[in-house]
Automatic annotation (TrEMBL):
It comes from the Eukaryota. The chain crosses the membrane at residues 12-31. GO terms for molecular function: heme binding; iron ion binding; oxidoreductase activity, acting on paired donors, with incorporation or reduction of molecular oxygen, reduced flavin or flavoprotein as one donor, and incorporation of one atom of oxygen. The lineage of its organism: Eukaryota, Fungi, Dikarya, Ascomycota, Saccharomycotina. Pfam families: p450. This is Uncharacterized protein.
């Protein structure tokens, strides 16, 4: 036997061994799953064709993402719960409220964030939105006191930002403009002031008479753009699932570095103060970072938590405000009802009673609350989310011929829950579920929604900052109604195209006029 034959026989024998091992593993796994399913009294999820190992799905999702229809893609699916593959990763998607309740609450310990730390880690590090287990518990315990009522209630700190926003609106002199761009700058300014003690002053520009102030350190003016760039890449990494590591180009890395440089500047500034000095500097107003610095002196912990909260607080509120004004401009009757409530309580124009606009008084504005609920229903800030099973488990319903049997979820499987689709489902919101109608929130049926309304998630991971976001949005809406009674829409396309990154906003902006 010559050398070639020996090599050939060796390789052939190993091919046979490998093939036999693969077959044996699959047979064993099939039998194991059947045994577990019988033990758990459940069935497998309905499987949807997904092309070659789910790589076709990746291109389909990217196409819808590019066209601004990603969140609508799964809204009209025939089944509430089904399985398909994304880039080789088996994924179950569901819009059933009982299944979502199980994932987020009643079976909370069965599910973890899975690959989110890998997907988002380059920007967010080890923070409340990327950690599981003890790390998450520690983060939440550290952050919860920072969202106590005393901090949330300070609405007056928003007024200087409102005045700058009003200057930008007035410069258009009744001509159409994109208010979404201004809302993202507004919330960036208010969020950085709340978190770092200083605003990035993105609303300060030459168009309203400001010269760019001398920056305190290199990178301040680059921060907002870099933060936006990083988020776009993070959303693509999350969409790519197991092949997320391919999304790691120089633009992404440079943007992350700029964001970290900005945050590190303020973290080092806070760490240079003693606890007594932190108390002294906080007397003029609450500063999130300074309160955290009293609990830990670890610069990475401080930076990571700050960026996690900034990501959650800035974009979600900007998106909520943008979608709200998009609908208000299209619905003059709703705008009139809102103005009537605001004017009766707080006055209008030169007769506005700013001292009367407080955390408590805003919560008593029932139509304003209904308006925000409806905006959050039709345009949830996080339209879809996911968890990964950390053990073999089940979802309560969706399997079998009648779709009412428990569904098997194997360890390591990704489960996506579709909040956007759920909150437009006619079974819970009636035949007019696609209609923007705040009045539905005064009807008895909405009190029975339970887990069919999830704008701020649910269970142990429910959003810590929901009152903060609602208070800020309420104040901005009330003040703009006082200052600009005339509102008109210049958006012809409906429904709007929606950009779905980590959060959702209008893909093409919100073009309106205000006087």
């Amino acid at each position: 036997m010559n050398g070639f034959e020996e090599v050939h026989n060796f390789l052939t024998s190993w091919y046979g061994i490998v093939l036999a091992a693969i077959v044996a593993y699959n047979v064993f796994d099939y039998v194991r799953v059947k045994v577990v399913m019988k033990k758990l009294n459940c069935v497998g999820p309905t499987v949807e064709s997904d092309g070659f190992f789910g790589f076709r799905v990746i291109f389909t999702l990217l196409k819808h993402k590019r066209e601004g229809t990603l969140v609508d893609f799964r809204k009209d699916m025939e089944l509430d719960t089904l399985r398909f593959r994304v880039a080789g990763t088996p994924m179950v998607i569901t819009r059933n409220p009982e299944n979502i309740k199980a994932i987020l609450a009643t079976q909370f310990n069965d599910f973890v964030l899975g690959g989110r730390h890998d997907h988002l880690g380059p920007l967010l590090g080890d923070g409340i939105f990327t950690l599981d287990g003890s790390g998450w518990k520690h983060s939440r315990a550290m952050l919860r006191p920072q969202f106590a009522r005393e901090q949330v209630a300070h609405v007056k700190s928003l007024e200087p930002h409102i005045q700058l926003l009003a200057k930008h609106i007035r410069k258009f002199q009744g001509e159409p403009f994109d208010i979404q761009k201004l809302f993202f700058r507004l919330t960036m300014d208010s969020a950085t002031e709340f978190l770092f003690g200083e605003s990035v002053d993105s609303l300060h520009d030459e168009t309203i008479g400001f010269s760019k102030s001398a920056i305190d350190f290199d990178g301040k003016n680059e921060f907002a753009e870099a933060f936006n760039t990083s988020q776009i890449y993070l959303s693509i990494r999350a969409l790519a699932q197991q092949v997320y590591f391919l999304i790691n180009n120089k633009e992404f890395r440079d943007a992350n570095a700029k964001v970290h440089k900005f945050a590190d500047y303020y973290v080092q500034k806070a760490l240079s103060f003693s606890t007594e000095e932190l108390d002294k500097y906080s007397q003029d107003g609450y500063i999130f970072l300074y309160e955290l610095a009293k609990q830990t002196r670890d610069p990475k912990v401080l930076r990571d938590q700050l960026l996690n909260i900034l990501l959650a607080g800035r974009d979600t509120t900007a998106g909520l405000l943008s979608f709200t004004f998009f609908e208000l401009a299209r619905n003059p009757d709703i705008w009139s009802k809102l103005k009537e409530e605001i004017y009766n309580r707080f006055g209008s124009g030169d007769d506005s009673n700013l001292e009367d606009i407080t955390f408590e008084s805003l919560k008593k504005c029932e139509y304003l609350k209904a308006l925000l609920n409806e905006a959050l229903r039709m345009y949830p800030s996080v339209p879809q989310n996911f968890r990964v099973a950390q053990k073999d488990t089940t979802l309560p319903t969706g399997g079998g011929p009648n779709r009412d049997l428990p569904v098997f979820i194997r360890k390591g499987q990704t489960v996506a829950y579709m909040v956007y689709a759920l909150q437009r489902d006619q079974r819970y919101y009636g035949k007019d579920s696609e209609v923007f109608r705040p009045e539905r929130w005064f009807e008895p049926e909405t009190r029975k929604l339970g887990w069919a309304f999830l704008p701020f998630n649910g269970g142990p991971r429910i959003c810590l900052g929901q009152q903060f976001a609602l208070t800020e949005a309420s104040y901005v809406i009330a003040r703009l109604a006082q200052l600009f009674p005339n509102l008109a829409s210049f958006d012809d396309e409906y429904p709007p195209r929606k950009a779905s990154h980590l959060t959702m906003c209008h893909q093409n902006g919100v073009v309106i006029s205000m006087t």
